[in-house]
Every structure is written in structure tokens, then in C-alpha cells.
């Protein structure tokens, strides 16, 4: 299985690139969003890949993140959704947009993608709604893994006689994906189901993109509170 390729772009086409890896050219199909984010011809790039094997065809699909790759895999598991439709959805919404739409049950947002009808959009939301929390949490764990361990704190030494203390740097703020994943975990521990918790966190994050874990939890709890 080919899971990742690193090389230089030989040429770009409407829906794929030729990736030159050590003198071997691979045709890698990507979503419109991914293609627009790639550098120009001759530039180096690294893509996560998914190899689709059929009786008469081998195709490689490329993604800039593991979360995008995972959504592609899940979308293709839905009846009636092939690689072309999956890439159209990811190109229109992006990985975060797909997760938000499915968590909120917003099939109309999925239907915006080219080639996706109402019944297909509704089937996607229905089939994947319980899997959305896991992929959303995956985004946080991947971000943390790629960032690596916290660097050793750098303490600026100053004249103690003047200040009476050493100045410490401000702690690094957690990433947005990590905050959402932690909020999901907290709501699950409180007894909320994965689908309703994911929907509430997604709605809270959409309303306030800069909210941290505590803010997301408070907003999600308000959304989950019984109405009336």
C-alpha cells in the first residue's frame, strides 16, 4: 500500500498532478481545494495517498492531511459515493466543513458539491453521523502528534535585583482542533451521545471560531439544554 509520496510536481492537470518521485512519475488525483493549495510545477510536495484498486484500474488519490484522507475513505464507504463524488465534497467543503455538516445533520451543505443529489447527501449524513466525532477528535490528535512534544520552556533571565523575579513566557494556546476534540471528550464523559455532542461542539465552534475548550463546553451545554 502506498501511504505517502514525496517528490516534485512534473505537471498539473484539471483533476490530478504528475508527481516525480526519484524518476518515477505517479498520477495523483486530488480535490479542487487540495490542487489549489499545491505549489507550482517543479516544486517539492508531500502528499498522503490512498490507492484504490479495481479489476481494470489502479488510481492514487492525494491529500494534504490525514484527516482529509480519512474523510475520503469514509465518504467512499457510503453506497453510491465513488472517488469522484468524494473529492467533489471535500473540494467544496474541506475536511472541517464535511465534519461540521455531518455532525449537524446539514445534508443541504453536502448537496452543494457537484454531482451530489439530495438522497445521496441525506444518506451520507445518516451513515456517517456517528463516525464524525471520531474523525473530528482525530484532527486534534494528529495536530498534537505533528507538533511534537512541548518544547522546553525558555525562561528569560533578568536582573533579579531590578525585578525580584524571573520572567516566564506565556503558555502556548492549544490548537482549535485540539480544543474541539477535548470538548467532545468532556461532553462524552458527561453522558451525552457522540452524535449530539459532536453537533453541539461543531455549532459552538462555528459561532465562535476562537473559543477554547472551556468556552466550547459552556456553549455546547447551552445548546444541549432542554428547550421549553
UniProtKB/TrEMBL annotation:
Functional description taken from the UniProt entry: The RuvA-RuvB-RuvC complex processes Holliday junction (HJ) DNA during genetic recombination and DNA repair, while the RuvA-RuvB complex plays an important role in the rescue of blocked DNA replication forks via replication fork reversal (RFR). RuvA specifically binds to HJ cruciform DNA, conferring on it an open structure. The RuvB hexamer acts as an ATP-dependent pump, pulling dsDNA into and through the RuvAB complex. HJ branch migration allows RuvC to scan DNA until it finds its consensus sequence, where it cleaves and resolves the cruciform DNA.
Domain DNA helicase Holliday junction RuvA type: 1-62
Any GO CC annotation of this UniProt entry: cytoplasm
Compartments reported by the entry: Cytoplasm
Domain of life from the UniProt record: Bacteria
Keywords: Cytoplasm, DNA damage, DNA recombination, DNA repair, DNA-binding
InterPro entries assigned: DNA_helicase_Holl-junc_RuvA_I (IPR013849), NA-bd_OB-fold (IPR012340), RuvA (IPR000085), RuvA_2-like (IPR010994), RuvA_C (IPR011114), RuvA_C_sf (IPR036267)
Protein's UniProt name: Holliday junction branch migration complex subunit RuvA
Domain remark from Swiss-Prot or TrEMBL: Has three domains with a flexible linker between the domains II and III and assumes an 'L' shape. Domain III is highly mobile and contacts RuvB.
Ranges where the Holliday junction DNA helicase RuvA C-terminal domain occurs: 179-225
Main location: cytoplasm
Positions of region (Domain III): 177-228
Species in which this protein is naturally found: Antarcticimicrobium sediminis
GO MF annotations in UniProt: ATP binding; four-way junction DNA binding; four-way junction helicase activity
Pfam families (UniProt xref): HHH_5, RuvA_C, RuvA_N
Family to which the UniProt record says this protein belongs: Belongs to the RuvA family.
Subunit structure: Homotetramer. Forms an RuvA(8)-RuvB(12)-Holliday junction (HJ) complex. HJ DNA is sandwiched between 2 RuvA tetramers; dsDNA enters through RuvA and exits via RuvB. An RuvB hexamer assembles on each DNA strand where it exits the tetramer. Each RuvB hexamer is contacted by two RuvA subunits (via domain III) on 2 adjacent RuvB subunits; this complex drives branch migration. In the full resolvosome a probable DNA-RuvA(4)-RuvB(12)-RuvC(2) complex forms which resolves the HJ.
Annotated SUPFAM superfamilies: DNA helicase RuvA subunit, C-terminal domain, Nucleic acid-binding proteins, RuvA domain 2-like
Domain I: annotated segments: 1-64
Biological process according to GO: DNA recombination; DNA repair
Amino acid at each position: 500500500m502506498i501511504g505517502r509520496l514525496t517528490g516534485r510536481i512534473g505537471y498539473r492537470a484539471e483533476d490530478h498532478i504528475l508527481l516525480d518521485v526519484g524518476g518515477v512519475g505517479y498520477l495523483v488525483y486530488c480535490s479542487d481545494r487540495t490542487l489549489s493549495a499545491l505549489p507550482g510545477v517543479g516544486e517539492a510536495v508531500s502528499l498522503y495517498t490512498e490507492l484504490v484498486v479495481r479489476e481494470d484500474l489502479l488510481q492514487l488519490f492525494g491529500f494534504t492531511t490525514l484527516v482529509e484522507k480519512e474523510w475520503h475513505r469514509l465518504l467512499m464507504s457510503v453506497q453510491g459515493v465513488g472517488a469522484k463524488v468524494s473529492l467533489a465534497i471535500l473540494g467544496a467543503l474541506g475536511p472541517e466543513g464535511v465534519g461540521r455538516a455531518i455532525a449537524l445533520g446539514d445534508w443541504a451543505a453536502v448537496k452543494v458539491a457537484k454531482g451530489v443529489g439530495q438522497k445521496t447527501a441525506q444518506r451520507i449524513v445518516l451513515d456517517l453521523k456517528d463516525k464524525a466525532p471520531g474523525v473530528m477528535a482525530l484532527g486534534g490528535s494528529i495536530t498534537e502528534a505533528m507538533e511534537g512534544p512541548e518544547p522546553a520552556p525558555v525562561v528569560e533571565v533578568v536582573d533579579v535585583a531590578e525585578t525580584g523575579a524571573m520572567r516566564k513566557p506565556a503558555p502556548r494556546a492549544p490548537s482549535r482542533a485540539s480544543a474541539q476534540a477535548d470538548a467532545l471528550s468532556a461532553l462524552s464523559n458527561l453522558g451525552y451521545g457522540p452524535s449530539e455532542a459532536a453537533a453541539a461542539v461543531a455549532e459552538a465552534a462555528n459561532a465562535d471560531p476562537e473559543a477554547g475548550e472551556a468556552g466550547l463546553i459552556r456553549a455546547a451545554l447551552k445548546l444541549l439544554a432542554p428547550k421549553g
